[in-house]
Specification:
Helix content is 15%, strand content 30%. The chain is an alpha/beta fold and 450 residues long. The chain folds into two domains: 222 residues, Spore Coat Polysaccharide Biosynthesis Protein SpsA, Chain A (Alpha-Beta Complex), CATH 3.90.550; 204 residues, Hexapeptide repeat proteins (UDP N-Acetylglucosamine Acyltransferase, domain 1, 3 Solenoid). It is elongated, with a radius of gyration of 30 Å. The termini are far apart. It is found in: Cytoplasm. Keywords: Acyltransferase, Cell shape, Cell wall biogenesis/degradation, Cytoplasm, Magnesium, Metal-binding, Multifunctional enzyme, Nucleotidyltransferase, Peptidoglycan synthesis, Repeat, Transferase. GO terms for molecular function: glucosamine-1-phosphate N-acetyltransferase activity; magnesium ion binding; UDP-N-acetylglucosamine diphosphorylase activity. This is Bifunctional protein GlmU. One of its GO terms (cellular component) is membrane.
């Protein structure tokens, strides 16, 4: 047997969370906490990762569907050893088995690598840490020579309170030893089978477990909303520091949120009060903020987005967005565009150099290069039954307060006067005005009236 298999335990009820959402799906830094565990596990380059699901299995499996993991159902929640035992078939051929808790999102790849190295030649190794108040955590018991003899669960502990070494909940097992010993794990008084019994089994055989001490913060198990907030604070700071060390300026870390899956290029500046969520990507030299939200947005090089919201959309290079703009619904903003005060763009594509400065709405529209959208312009895209598209050509001048009643096309170089209500297609080069808009001969500036 060769290779590493990983088991992520994600079946628990999480009753202390007091939530309809499965515990492991509560987000930490914008990502379900169990995904952080899967990401850490992948640093070991395992042959397989198996996620054990139970409570809310369908939701958990959907949240991890794109990660390449295998799922095993724990229909009866009979403890950690019961969960791992169900994975034997899925991990056939693996020489060692790593077991991780799905509610411990702060574990790092570095600690897992140390743990895997410590397990060499041992039946198992597990992570420990020292805490002031163990609370519900299992305590590590050592013999006179410092060797581990057992892990005592909190419900069975009868010693004094105070600081203690506790089991952090991450294990590496020799696979053959694990599968041969799991059937021998006794049933606890609570009617569950615990992995911690394997520690005493190894000691009784004269082959005690190895241990690796990790920072207490990495062992944090998120089982209520207080610990969820603690994990959020730690991971948020980790993400901010990672970006700052990579060349991103964060003006005010205390008021800035960058999601764990966001990507930022060098020389990006994030100003106070901004949030970069989801799988947003911000290219080199862009300035985000202040008070801006990006949600699954792509922002091009040297673009400025100020006091605005961009959702599920793409903004090109050298653009200016905001303040108080809203870009959403799959919009694509071309290079060198200006989308300014109180402008909204939804499910539309703007060509290079489009200017849309004030109080306007473009929905379900195509706008050609160099077109000007005047203040108060609206594409009237919904007729009460269905949405319709508006096509605006290149170099078009759309006058203030123009209403474009979709479906409608305005050709290249056309002109609409202030207050025009366009109900029919406007050919290229034509000028229209009025309600409804009709053609007229537009005088150039300075031209005398007849």
């Amino acid at each position: 047997m060769s290779g590493t298999g990983v088991v992520v335990l994600a079946a628990g009820l999480g009753t202390r969370m007091r939530s309809r959402l499965p515990k492991v799906l509560h987000p930490v830094c914008g990502v379900p906490m169990v995904r952080h565990v899967v990401v850490a596990a992948k640093t070991l380059e395992p042959a397989r990762i198996v996620v054990v699901t139970g409570h809310g299995a369908e939701l958990v499996e959907a949240a991890l569907a794109d990660t390449g993991v295998t799922f095993v159902r724990q229909e009866t929640l009979d403890g950690t050893a019961g969960a791992v035992r169900r994975c034997e078939g899925a991990l056939a051929g693996c020489g060692r088995v790593v077991v991780l808790n799905g509610d411990a999102p702060l574990i790092t790849g570095e600690s897992l690598a140390r743990l895997a190295a410590a397990a060499a030649g041992r039946p198992l190794a597990f992570a420990t840490c020292r805490v002031e108040q163990p609370g519900r955590l299992g305590r590590v018991v050592r013999g006179p020579g410092g060797e581990v003899t057992a892990v005592v669960e909190a419900a069975e502990y009868e010693g004094s309170d105070g600081p203690a070494e506790i089991n952090a909940g991450q294990y590496v097992f020799d696979a053959a030893w694990l599968w041969s010993h799991l059937p021998e794990v006794p049933l606890s008084a609570k009617g569950e089978y615990y992995l911690t019994h394997l520690v005493a089994m190894a000691a009784n055989e004269g082959r005690p477990a190895a241990t690796v001490e990790i920072p207490a913060v990495e062992a944090l198990g998120v089982d209520d909303r207080v610990r969820l907030a603690e994990a959020e604070a730690v991971l948020r700071r980790r993400v901010l520091e990672r970006h700052m060390l990579a060349g991103v300026t964060v003006e005010d870390p205390a008021t800035t949120f960058i999601g764990a899956e966001a990507e930022l290029g060098q020389d990006v500046t994030v100003l106070a009060g901004s949030r970069i969520e989801g799988r947003s990507v911000v290219a080199e030299g862009a300035v985000i903020g202040p008070n801006t939200t990006l949600r699954n947005a792509l922002v091009g090089r040297d673009t400025r987005v100020e006091a605005s919201v961009v959702e599920d959309s793409v903004i090109g290079e050298r653009c200016t967005v905001g303040p108080f703009a809203h870009i959403r619904g799959g919009a694509v903003i071309g290079d060198e565009c200006e989308v300014r005060n109180y402008a909204e763009v939804k499910n539309s594509r703007l060509g290079r150099g489009v200017k849309m400065h004030h109080f306007s709405y473009l929905g379900d529209a195509e706008v050609g290069d160099g077109t000007n959208i005047g203040a108060g312009t609206i594409t009237c895209n919904y007729d009460g039954v269905a949405k319709h598209r508006t096509i605006i050509g290149r170099g078009v001048f759309i006058g203030s307060d123009t209403m474009l009643i979709a479906p409608v096309t305005v050709g290249d170089g056309a002109f609409t006067a202030t207050g025009a209500v366009v109900t029919r297609d406007v050919p290229a080069g034509m000028s229209v005005r009025g309600v409804p808009a009709k053609p007229f001969e537009r005088k150039e500036r300075g031209q005398a009236s007849p």
